[in-house]
Amino acid sequence: MPTPSPRRPQDLIHLLTRAERLAARRLRAVLDEDGCSLDAWRVLALLSDGQGHHMTAIAEAAFLPPATLTKLVDHLVDQNLVHRRVDPLDRRRILAHLTPRGQTYWRRLDREVRARWPVLSDGDDELLRALLGRLVDTLDGASAESTL
């Protein structure tokens, strides 16, 4: 019986990187047809919950630096997909929301992405989501501990 190879972080990092790049490539192929970037899709996905989000939260969710996010949101505002409002609870902050046109655009994008996204079988999607969530939590916890 062969002995298992030792765990090497670079193996997992390689698999995660490859999976992310393949997923992004597949997603971009769908989004390009509608003239939507991957970054814009991430922003629209977050705003699709209808709750309105602060720019800081959007930047974190979209993995974008604040200046880049501001330019992207400006572009989405120019396209009448997003609008900004002053936060009624903290008038110093701005909340971004989808416009009605943005909601329609998002629903169409979401349908197209879902229709062309490969599905793993027998509950593997849920298993993968749970495992990746645990990995993120573990790495996030290890990151927080190292800064103490």
From TrEMBL:
Superkingdom to which the source organism belongs: Bacteria
Keyword Transcription regulation: yes
A Pfam family annotated for this UniProt entry: MarR_2
Residues annotated as domain HTH marR-type: 9-137
SMART domains: HTH_MARR
Keywords: DNA-binding, Transcription, Transcription regulation
Name used for this protein in its record: MarR family transcriptional regulator
Source species of the chain: Streptomyces dengpaensis
